[in-house]
Amino acid sequence: MSRNRSADQSFYLQKQHLDREDPVTTAPPDNDVLWARALVKAHQGTPALRGVSIGVREGEVLAVTGPRGSGKTSLLDCLSGLSSPDEGEIWFNSSPVHTLARAARERLRRERFGWVGPEPQLVPELTAAENVALPPLLAGAGRKAAATAAAEWLERLDVSDCARRRPAELRQDQRQRIAVARALAHGPSVVFADEPTAPLHREARDQVLRILVAAARSHRITLLLATHDPEVARYADRVAAMTDGRLATPVSARQALASAPAAPTQAAGPTAASAVPPKTLEEDPDRCSPTSV
Prior knowledge:
Blueprint: H1 5-14, H2 16-19, E1 32-43, E2 46-57, E3 61-65, H3 72-79, E4 87-92, E5 95-96, H4 102-112, E6 113-116, H5 128-138, H6 143-156, H7 172-184, E7 190-194, H8 202-218, E8 222-227, H9 230-233, E9 238-243, E10 246-247, E11 251-252, H10 253-259
Parallel strand pairs: 3-8, 3-9, 6-7, 7-8
Antiparallel strand pairs: 1-2, 1-4, 4-5, 9-10, 9-11
């Protein structure tokens, strides 16, 4: 799952004269795989982002925290190319994203980015294996390579026994693990995770987060986590808090947690340093049983 950064840069730089919509300005620092400056975004006249600037390094896990409506999802949407900012710049591997036309942004998202949302959003007609193989196929991989990648990631996410089952036959935490496998199967450079464990109970949440973060670290994937849950932010290297569309300067997870209110009852979750998956998850004899109605 190695990536050729220079080839990526050359490809997107060569396309600028065809896809450019705005003037290109000075490139960001080379050590930031993803970088944005002065992003402004409004939804039907309501400000969502108010001059947000941020840089994320290769292989870094960054948590963007804040209450609902603070602008976390809007920020991830813009950084991932899902939507365009009204103002500002976005750079990926020193190549501008904000100047790309819609088709080029979609190609970038298919080939270089992964996405995990609060709901799995799997294709209901496809099996788990077929859902996970879909991004590699769309990125240009052959069927055999896509199937191999799907099988490997389903195994890593501990849902290989569910490969032949369709989403309606699986529990919510199983579907979410499959969604994580799908986001990683095509070897992205960046994974955007918007409240990826919101519908899960605590135990399932911690398992999914450990696997997602460990996979990102082992493959040098940059991971952006948007969350309102301080327990989720514990898995990050740095934390950046959002309020009313504005982003505070990112600080280490340790600093952010030191200034956060203490959890009321339950013991704190693992820190970023200990956020590694167990060698084996608990055996669950009912892992792939149909969801009870």
